[in-house]
Every structure is written in structure tokens, then in C-alpha cells.
């Protein structure tokens, strides 16, 4: 069984599928503006998830869920799914590998620094683009970045555009130096920045029934979509609560 996504819903589904000996294959996905682990990776502190009376960071919570999924034998792939064909049987899934690649992260706050440090587990190098002349993160977080040889911080720098190769694949980022307006290209295979929350269902548009806001429609009381064998859980089908605990139980 293939599971796309690695938020609380994706990891919980993975754990249950693995315990049922169905050998789950998980595409954790970097998503747009995030990292493996879903939307909680951009949340500094989670204080409403049961079992953690003192709270827990989103990064730590998702790391624990991921390790629990691996403990039960899940096969995890740190990459995005770029296309899905639900009209074939079995479904066809196309992905792009970003593990071991050069990545770019935009921002200088605590959450962004957390993302950059987390990505080092999967990337060979991370470029951190900061529009200001200093980081806004706590000193301890800054020290971790400066002490890591695989992270390069570019101050007074902004991302201008994505550069693609002849195949239409991302090959770099066009950046501009603030003040001098000097432009250059950084080689990179992925760009991460905080763009807010939206449903991540574009891959299924036109193939599966969605509501007017882009959420997957499921049959009441189930996780079944309009396509047999395709199930939805978490924020992609929940336009009301959108909480970690409800995602895990969906």
C-alpha cells in the first residue's frame, strides 16, 4: 500500500497499515514551503496533542511519529509525488528524488532555521537566504547554523525566480543581493519557504471529486474518496478542524 504524505494522518495510517502486515511505502514529501512531516513542521510549539503535558515542538512530534512508522517496517521515501494517475490499475505515481541534493531555504526566524537544520538530514547542502543583515532566531539556533559546514547563510539576499533545465525541472534559484541589485544563480533542486496553509490536492484535480475550496470529498463516516481504492485523511479532507489530533484520527 502506498501512502502519500507524512503529517499526523500519513504517519498514523502508515503505523496501522504496517501493523496489519500490508508493507506500506510512504512518500513523505517536501511539499511547498515545508519539509517531511507536514504542516506541523512549521509549528514551533504544539500544546494540544495528548500525552505531552509540557508541550512538544512540531518537529519533535513528527520525528517521533516517523521513527515509530520505521520501527514497524515502513519504507520511507523523502521526496514529493509529482503526478498521480488514478485511472490506471494499479495507480501510477511519479516522484522526484531530492535526497542528497542542494536545497534553498528562505527566511531567518526560528521556524525557518529549524527547517534548514532538519533538511540537512536529507540534503548534501542547504543555502539559507535572509533578506536582513542578521538572523532573527534565538542565539542557540543561530549557533547551530553557523557551526554546520553544510549550511551557507546569504544575508541581504532575496529569491527572485526559479531556474529550470531543458526538461522543465528545477535546477537553481535566481537570487538578488539587496542594495547592489546584483543577481546570480544558486544551484539547487528544492526551494522551501513559508507561504501559509492551503490544501495540497492539486495532483488529483480533475480525477477525484473535490469541493469548491479544493478539499477531497469523502463518503460520510469513512475515508473513501470518489475513486475506489483511494482514501483521504488529514487536512486534505478536513476544512473545519485542521488539528494534529483530528488528522491522526481521520
From TrEMBL:
SUPFAM superfamilies registered for this protein in UniProt: FAD/NAD(P)-binding domain
Domain FAD/NAD(P)-binding: start-end pairs: 2-70, 83-248
Species, as recorded: Pisum sativum (Garden pea)
Protein name: FAD/NAD(P)-binding domain-containing protein
Source taxon at top rank: Eukaryota
One Pfam family from the record: Pyr_redox_2
Molecular function, one GO term: oxidoreductase activity
Keywords from the named record: Flavoprotein, Oxidoreductase
Family, as annotated: Belongs to the class-II pyridine nucleotide-disulfide oxidoreductase family.
Single GO biological process annotation from the record: cellular response to toxic substance
Amino acid at each position: 500500500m502506498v501512502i502519500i504524505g507524512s503529517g499526523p494522518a500519513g504517519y498514523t495510517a502508515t503505523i496501522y497499515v504496517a501493523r496489519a502486515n500490508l508493507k506500506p511505502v510512504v512518500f513523505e514529501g517536501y511539499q511547498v514551503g515545508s519539509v517531511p512531516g507536514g504542516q506541523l513542521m512549521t509549528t514551533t510549539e504544539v500544546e494540544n496533542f495528548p500525552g505531552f503535558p509540557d508541550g512538544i515542538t512540531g518537529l519533535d512530534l513528527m520525528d517521533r511519529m516517523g521513527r515509530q512508522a520505521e520501527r514497524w517496517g515502513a519504507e520511507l521515501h523523502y521526496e514529493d509525488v509529482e503526478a498521480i494517475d488514478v485511472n490506471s490499475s494499479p495507480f501510477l505515481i511519479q516522484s522526484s528524488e531530492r535526497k542528497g541534493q542542494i536545497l534553498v531555504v528562505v527566511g531567518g526566524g526560528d521556524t525557518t532555521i529549524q527547517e534548514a537544520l532538519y533538511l540537512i538530514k536529507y540534503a548534501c547542502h542547504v543555502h539559507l537566504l535572509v533578506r536582513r543583515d542578521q538572523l532573527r532566531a534565538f542565539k542557540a539556533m543561530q549557533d547551530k547554523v553557523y557551526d554546520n559546514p553544510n549550511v551557507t547563510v546569504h544575508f541581504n539576499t532575496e529569491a527572485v525566480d526559479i531556474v529550470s533545465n531543458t526538461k522543465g525541472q528545477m535546477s537553481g534559484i535566481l537570487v538578488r543581493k539587496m542594495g547592489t541589485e546584483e543577481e546570480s544563480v544558486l544551484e539547487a533542486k528544492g526551494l522551501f519557504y513559508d507561504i501559509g496553509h492551503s490544501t495540497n490536492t492539486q495532483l488529483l484535480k480533475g480525477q477525484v471529486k473535490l469541493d469548491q475550496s479544493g478539499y477531497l470529498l469523502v463518503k460520510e463516516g469513512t475515508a473513501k474518496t470518489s475513486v475506489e481504492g483511494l482514501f483521504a485523511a488529514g487536512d486534505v479532507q478536513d476544512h473545519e478542524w485542521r488539528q494534529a489530533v483530528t488528522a491522526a484520527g481521520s
